[in-house]
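Hi! If you just cloned this repository, the fastest way to understand the data is to look at a raw example. We've pasted two of them here, unedited. The first protein comes first, obviously.
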Amino acid sequence: MKKVLFASVCKPIGPSVGDATSVGYELLHGQVTRAQHIYSPRVVHKQFSLDYISENLDTPAVVLHYPSKAAFLREIKKGYDVFGLAFVLSTHHHMMEMCRLIREHSPKTKIVLGGYGTVMKDEELTPYCDAICREEGVGFMRRYLGEKELPVEDFKHPEITSRLRLFGIPVTHTAMIFAGLGCPNGCDFCCTSHFFKRRHIRLLPTGESIFETMAKHQQRDPQMEYTILDEDFLLNQRRARDFLDLCRQKERTFSTFCFASVKALSQFSYDELLEMGIDGVWVGYEGRESGYDKHHGRDIDELIQELQDHGITVLSSMILGIPYQTEEIARKEFAGLMADKPALSQFLIYGPTPGTPFYESVVSKGLLNETLASNRAKYYKKCTGFTAMVKHPFMEPHEIEALQEEFYQQDFRLLGPSIFRVAGIKLSGYKKYKDHENPLLRKKAVGFRNKLAKFLAILPVGIFGPKISLKNRLTYAKQFFEILKIVNTWEKLYVFASPIMMGAAFVSVFLHWMNLMEHPITRYHYYFGRNSLQKRVQLVGGFWNWFHIQKETTHIPLWRKWSWSVLKVFRLF
C-alpha cells in the first residue's frame, strides 16, 4: 500500500524571518487584531484542507502542521510514495525549499502541490512538482492515488477543533464545520471565488447534514462553539432554512460564527439568525461605493448596528485603495465604519491575485508596480493585503499603506480591544431576548449569559490593564457590575478567576515585548484510511518520536493513549 504525507509549509514563517507583513499562523493576531497588543486573541489556524482530504482517502496518510525543517527531514526520510504540500502565494518560497529537500532526500517521492498558491503559472510550478491540484482536493487525490471516485455527499466530515486563548489561557473550544468551497458572488479581487470558477461546492449539501455534524460535536461537548467555513453560508437560502427548521424542531441552539454577505443576511430576520445559533458573522464592508452585487439588500451600516444590537458579533472587512477612493473618501468611509462599532475590523489593501478579473485588468493596463512586475518572486511574496501594488489615480503606495496602519491603530484607540467589545454586544443580546416569547430565543439568551459570566474574569484586565482609555475603562467597569447582577450564583465564581487572568496578562506583556511563543508546536495527525476502524491519532511535536505507531493495526493500547494525553497536558505549561 502507498504511503502518503501531507504538510503545511515549514516553520518558522512570519515577518521576523523575512516574510511579508501578516504572514503567519494566526488570522486574528496577524491581521484583524494586530494592533491590539496583549489583548489580541490568539488561535493557530492549521491547514484544515489536508486533514479533510486525509479523512477521505482509502490510503493511510500522515499530516504535519507547521513542522520544523528538522522534523520534516526526519519524516520524509521514511520513504513516502506521495507528498502533498499546501501553500499560498506569500509562502511560495517556503514551498520551493521544501520541494528541494524532498528531491534531495527522497527522490522517488512524487510531489503534489495544492492550495491557493497554485494560481502561479505552470512553468513556475512544474520544476518543483509532479502534479498540481487546482480543484476540490478529495476528488483530485483519490484519482491521483487510483482510488474509486467518491461523491461529495459521501465525504466524511473530519473532527477538527481549535482553542482560542486570551493571555495564553484557553477560553473557547471551536469546531470547524466545512460546509462549502467557492462563492458565486465573483467579486473582482476574490481568489477563492474565481479559483473555483464562481461555483459553490457544497461539502455539506443539506441543512440536515450541517445540523447532524454540529449536533455530534455538541454531544461530546455541550459548550462547543462553531465556525462554519463557507464563503457565503446563508446565500443558499433553502439549505439555511432547512437547517433553521431542524433547529426549531429539535429545540437545539448553537453558538456559531459564519461568513455572510449583506445580500445573504438580508434574506433572514435577526430572530431567524439567532434561532440558527448564528451569533457572529464576517461581513465584507469593502467600500460604500464599491458597487459589489453582494451589497444589495439592507443598508450595510444599519445592518452592522442592528446585528450587534441583537447580540450578533460582527467582523467587518474594509478595503483600501479602490480606484474611486481619495484619502478623504477613505477616511470618511472609515469614520462611518467606526460609528457602527463593529466588534472586529480588518483593513486590507486592494490587491491583484492571479486568476481574478482585477489581476487581468491591472496587467492589461500596465498598472502593476514596476518593481513587482519585473520580479515575480517579490510580487508573490507581497500578496498579503498589506502592500499597495497597483498604481492608484489619487494616492501613492506609501500613502495607502500609511492609511492602513493608521486605521488599525485608530480602531483600537477608539473602540478598545475587540474582546471587550464583545461583552457589550452579548449584554445587549441578553437583555433583548431573556424574556422573549420564543423558547429557542430564550435558550439563546441563556447562552449569552453563560458567555458573559466568563467576562467577570476577563473585564478586570481591561479596567486595570495598559493602553486603555479612561472612557473605555469606565465602560468596562459598568459592564462588569451589570453582568454580576444577571448571572447566577455559580457563574459569579468566575470573579475569583480574575487574578489568574490579571497574572496571565502580565506574563503576556513580557512575552509580547520579547516576541516569544510566536511559533506553534508541530502537530502530527495520523489517518489510517477511510474504511479503517481506527480513528485519527494526534500527537504534539517533539514527543511523537517517543512512540511507534503500528499503522497496520486498528487498536492502540490504552497506556499509549494515556501517555499522549499526559504529554498534551504538559504542553499547556
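Ok, and the second one:
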Amino acid sequence: MGCYLSAANTDKDTHHEDSPFLPYAVCNMQGWRRNQEDAHIALPDFDPEKSLSLFAVFDGHGGAEVAIFCERHFGTLLKSCEAYRQGDYALALRTAFSDTDAALRNSFQEICAIHDEHEIKQTTINDEFRTRVQKAQAPPSSSSSASSASSASSASSASSASSAPNTTTSPASSSSTPATLPVAEEQEDPDLSEGVDVGNGLIVARGLLVQLAQQAADDAIEHPEDYDKNDYVDIAGYELPRLLVNQLYAAMMGDEEDEDDDDDDDDDKEADQDAVAAAAANDIKEQVSSDGGNSDGTAGSSTSSSFDPSIVISDDDDDRPSYASGCTAVVILIDRARHTVYVANCGDSRIVLSRDGTAVPLSEDHKPEDDVEVKRIEHAGGHVTEEGRINGCLNLSRALGDLRYKTNVSLREDEQIISGTPDVVKCVLNPMMDEYLLLMCDGITGSYENQEVVDEVRSLINNHQLAAIATNNKDAIPSGGGDAKTVAANLNIPVPTVDGAMLSRVCGDVCDYCVAEDIDQSEDGSGCDNETFMVVRLTDMFSEAQKQAAAATTGLNFNCDPNVVELPALTLKRKAAPTTAAAAAVTDTTTNNQEDGQSNEEPSAKRRKTD
C-alpha cells in the first residue's frame, strides 16, 4: 500500500473554544495515510492589546516536522517583526514566512527531535489502530486478547483528551483481518536514528526497520491469503519476510546472485519481493549514510550525524528533515477592532469566507502548472512535468521548508524553485453578512468546491440546530427538516446557539464526508489524504450597533473581491543569523555560524508530495 494504511483511520482529533471574540472548532483526521502530517494554530486572543486573533492550517508533506515547527513558532516570529509592531500586518505576515524558513535552516537539532518524537507517536497510533482493526473481525476465541489491547488504546486516547480542555479524540470502527497476522512491535522510546546490527557485519537505521516491519504487517493484513508465518524471520526484534531479508543482505553486500528460497515456489511473488528488496536495500544505504553510517553498511562516527550545511546538496545525501520535507500554509490574522482579515497563503491549502451563504475565496491555490509559477520555476532552473510535478517530485509550487529547492543565492526568496513567499490578501468584513471563515487543507478541497463547502457547513449547522430543538419539541420539526430559525420562531423559543461544540461536530461531519470509503475507487486520490478543517464564527465579533450601522450605510467598502497586497521583494536568507530576535530564539546554538548548502543539481524523486 506504500504510503497508505490498509484501512482508513477515521479517528477524529477535535478542538474547540467558545471564545467571547471568535468561537472556533477544528478537526484533524489521519485518514488513509500512514502518517498524520497536518498541524494548526487557533488563538482567538492572540494579542489582547492589539485585539488580534490568529488561525492557521499547516499541511505537511515528506514528514510532519515542518508543520509542527510552524505550529510552535510562527506566532512568536510574527510578533517579533518590526512591521507587526508598526501595525503593518500584511508586511508582517510576509516577513514571518521568510523568518520561518530562516529559522528552519538554523534549527536542525530541534527539527530532528520533532521528527523523531512524531515517528514514535505515530508508530504507537498506528499500532493501536491496527490492533483495533484486527479485533473487529477477530474470531470469538481471540477476542479476549484483542479486547485488552483495545482497552489500552481507549485509555490512552482518554488520557490524551483529558490533558487539554475541549479536546477529543473519537475512535471510529473499521474492518480488517484476523488478529493472527503480524503486528510491528512497539519499541519503548526507540532512537530511530540508532544503528542496529542485523548480522553479517551490517548496520542499518532502526527507523528503517520499524518502517519495513510496519509495511510487512500491513501487507499481510491486506493479503491474508499470502501470509505464512514460516516465511517471516525475526531481525533485531522486527518481523520481516524471509525472502526480503535474504535479498537485503545480498544487495547490501554487493552480491549479484539472488538467494534461493526453497520454501517459496511462486515466481511472481518472488520477482515482486526481489524488486522490493532492491529498493529497500538502496533506502537502507541512504538511511545509514545520512544517520552516521557508511554506504557500505558499516557504522560511522557518532558525530557524523550532524549535517554540515556547507556540503553540496545531492540526490544521495540530502534526506534531512526540512530539506526534503515542508508544509503548505494558510494563515489569517484578524484585526477585530477594524473588522479586517489579513490572509497569507503559500501552497494549496485554502480559506473561504461565508458571506450570507455565498463563498468568497480569500486565497488562491499555488500549483506548478500555473503560468506565473511555471515562469518562476523555469527561471530558477527547474521544470514541471506533464503530471504537474516540479522536477518530477512535488506537486505544489510554494511551501515552507523544502529547503533543498531554495539554495540559489543569486535569486530572491520569491524566485526560488519552491517559493516560501505567500500571497497576502486584505479583506474588510461586513458585520451584517459575514458568518464564518473556513480554513482547510487540500484533503478537504479535493472533495469540495468553495461554494459546496459553504453550503455543507450551513446545512450541517442547521441540522444540528434542528436536532437541539427536537430534544424537547420532537413533534414540531417538519418531516423534511426545515429551517431552524423558522422552526424556533414558530415555537417562540431561542434559536440554538452555534457554539464551539456544535462547530466541532460540523468539522467532524465534513471530514467524514471527505474520506474515501474504498481507496481503490479513488482514481484521482481524493479522499485518501490527511484532513484538517477549521471553522471560525464571525458573528460574535460584531456588536448589534455595528450591525445596524452597517445595514444603514450605503457604499461602505466591504471587499467582496479582496485585492492582493503588493509587498517588497525579499532576498534569500542564507546566513545562519535570523532576521529577528524571535528567529534567534528558535535557532540551535550549534549551527549559528554555519552556511546553507548550495547546489544546481535536480532534487531526488525519492521524496515527493503525495497528499
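That's it. A detail worth noticing about the second one: The chain has two domains: 5-107+322-591, 110-290.
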